[in-house]
Amino acid sequence: MEVKFERLALIGIGLIGSSIARAARRSGIVGEIAIQSRRAETVETARRLALGDAYTTDPAEAVRGADLVIVCVPVGACEDVARAIGPALAEGALVSDVGSVKASIIRQMQPHLPAHVHFVPAHPVAGTEHSGPEAGFAELFRNRWCILTPAPEADRAAVARLRAFWEAFGAYVEEMPAEHHDMVLAITSHVPHLIAYNIVGTAAHLEEVTQSEVMKFAAGGFRDFTRIAASDPTMWRDVFLNNREAVLEMLARFNEDLTALQRAIRWGDGDTLFELFARTRAIRRGIIEAGQEVEAPDFGRGQLAADPHKA
Amino acid sequence: MEVKFERLALIGIGLIGSSIARAARRSGIVGEIAIQSRRAETVETARRLALGDAYTTDPAEAVRGADLVIVCVPVGACEDVARAIGPALAEGALVSDVGSVKASIIRQMQPHLPAHVHFVPAHPVAGTEHSGPEAGFAELFRNRWCILTPAPEADRAAVARLRAFWEAFGAYVEEMPAEHHDMVLAITSHVPHLIAYNIVGTAAHLEEVTQSEVMKFAAGGFRDFTRIAASDPTMWRDVFLNNREAVLEMLARFNEDLTALQRAIRWGDGDTLFELFARTRAIRRGIIEAGQEVEAPDFGRGQLAADPHKA
Ligand SMILES: NC(=O)c1ccc[n+]([C@@H]2O[C@H](COP(=O)([O-])OP(=O)(O)OC[C@H]3O[C@@H](n4cnc5c(N)ncnc54)[C@H](OP(=O)(O)O)[C@@H]3O)[C@@H](O)[C@H]2O)c1
Ligand SMILES: NC(=O)c1ccc[n+]([C@@H]2O[C@H](COP(=O)([O-])OP(=O)(O)OC[C@H]3O[C@@H](n4cnc5c(N)ncnc54)[C@H](OP(=O)(O)O)[C@@H]3O)[C@@H](O)[C@H]2O)c1
Question: Which UniProt keywords are present, listed alphabetically (chains A, B) (predicted)?
Answer without folding.
Answer: Amino-acid biosynthesis, Aromatic amino acid biosynthesis, NAD, Oxidoreductase, Tyrosine biosynthesis
